[in-house]
Amino acid sequence: xxxxxxxPAERREGRExxxxxxxxxxxxxxxxxxxxxxxxxxxxxxxxxxxxxAAALAVPGVLDVLTHENAPRLAEPDDATLAVLQDPxxxxxxxxxxxxxxxxxxxxxAGAAAVRVGYEAGKHDVVLTPSHPGLYVPEEASAxxxxxxxQGDPDGAFENSAVRVDVAYRVPPLHNHPMEPHASTARWxxxxxxxxxxSQGAHTVRAVLAGLFGLPExxxxxxxxxxxxxxxxxxxxxxxxxxAAMAARHTGRPVTVAFxxxxxxAVVGHRAPTLHRxxxxxxxxxxxxxLTHEVTTHTSRVKEFVEHAAVPARIMYAAPHRRTLxxxxxxxxPSPSWMRAPGEAPGMYALESAVDELAGELGMDPIELRVRNxxxxxxxxxxxxxxxxxxxxxxxxxxxxxxxxxxPRPRSRRDGPLLLGTGVAAATYPVLVGxxxxxxxxxSDGTFAVRTDATDIGTGARTVLAQVAADALEVPLERxxxxxxxxxxxxxxxxxxxxxxxxxxxxxxxACARLTHRLAGHTGPLPLQGIDAHADTTGTADAESAYAxxxxxxxxxxxxxxxxxxxxxxxxxxxxxxxxRILNARTARSQFVGGxxxxxxxALTEGSTMDAAxxxxxxxxxxxxxxxxxxxxxxxEAHWLDEDDSRLNPxxxxxxxxxxxxxxxxxxxxxxxxxxxxxxxxxxxxxxxxLAGLPARGTS
Length: 700
Hints:
By secondary structure, the chain is of the alpha+beta class. It is built from 15 helices and 24 strands. It has three domains: 34-123 and 177-267, Aldehyde oxidase/xanthine dehydrogenase, molybdopterin binding domain (Aldehyde Oxidoreductase, domain 4), CATH 3.30.365.10; 142-173 and 271-431 and 547-693, Aldehyde Oxidoreductase, domain 4 (2-Layer Sandwich); 434-536, 2-Layer Sandwich (Aldehyde Oxidoreductase, domain 4).
């Protein structure tokens, strides 16, 4: 080992990005390239009865308008959101009904505005309620999780508990807004499809396109070299890549489709709203006797996606009687999908808020309550944990935060019109890993080339994989070159579920270890083409584990609540994590801090509204959907424990991309309660909502 792994190495692509030479999917100046702009449906449910393209075709520079009447035919996709321009149906507002192709982006946009579409509108239903008549219990929630799990007699245990809380929370729809909106550039050459796309997984895109267009996968090349964020919304192919390939086939020219930001909420997935009911029962000493977490959410009529927000309650705390249940209603809404920490982010907000409420009923310190209910094994499965250091995270966080100086009484600290408070919440995220392949080659100049189709979506994957390779090869980091982001490289799974580095790194480590073994038996100079070694972790990385594998953490927040305006400001955020071996201190801290910042947005500013009359999201751009910016973040710190877990992968690492958002909103919400004495149970905690909930001025 060279000691490279764990060091705060700088991002390898940093100079390209700040210098403007890193090219993204919409920036490839191919000869003859044209632009395309989609036309979204203006009704929430119905069908297209006619499309008048005459005015659009009269716009200078417009080449053609694709509709369901003339667009290339596609095979039926597994993901029905990709069946674009195939029939006249309109399943939700914003569904694409036409695509204008033009010589310039300006002409395409003007042409799209000139398209006239006739509709037969149907009655739509877009509002989720706890008693919606269409609610059902799905067999599975997302990520393959059972829709319901029950142990013991949770209802009877609740009634017989000495201390009880029965509470409800609401998390609104939330949207991914990566820095780079979704975009693709496609061209056809001699029967081959060549695509540059903003995706979290090039091999996944290739497999989907092969099925849609009836091509062997080897006749498709997908490149995703630089991706400007995704947060889950680019984890599966979106309509941009399908439309680009269709338009390129139709026109015979390279075509770029780049979605404007305001179109994203309707077509790239969103975090569905979740309504939570939690019932916690405990004895007088604070030991849980029962835990019930029931989640109500929506899905679309296009495809089923059920936010698995009750799942974290299956692994967090010991309770002999438990029920976790999901209910879902299919509405005339855009299809929900993956968003950073799906399930865990909204689920842990509700669970950790309820635990805080129980601590208040017990008159117990909220950290002590959590520690007192630490399970010996994973409660749902009964499997032993590969490692679990949540209690240590809570204790270390309390030490760093100064928790011992906290007055537990709500509304006990004040600075003029500002009410001050502190809060805590736990965090967790599962350890996920998939099979991957990689190639390592020793070159005659003394350097090494490592190739795998990992995707760097801004996380620093290139850098971390180079560190893994350098350690396995026992060479300095500067002698390792990494190639990622293309289906012409050894296959690898997508970047998602905090599984990327564990999956790709496993294969890279194995390939480099094998290369080291080969080199040890080699004498003389290397051949001109070098010496290589390959690895395929199928059957090992994806083998069923006898252990429950999760990362854990603790979040602490200090807030100031303005009694005059209702504004909540977060003065301090602290996260302490147990996430296996940290492979790069610099990029890890960036991931943790980024997740906490996103959790701050979830708590205070981010939220979307479904317009019942028009059937679409009101907040569709960054002017109305408010993500946190630098001015919203005062002091934010991330620390981690040195966790040694040999039951994970050769690097001993756990995923870190999502745990930072998990529990942050609850810590902030708990701090607001401590500051004000008022429990707000609906996010986000905007000034109007907080001001309306505060006692009238002049009262205590």
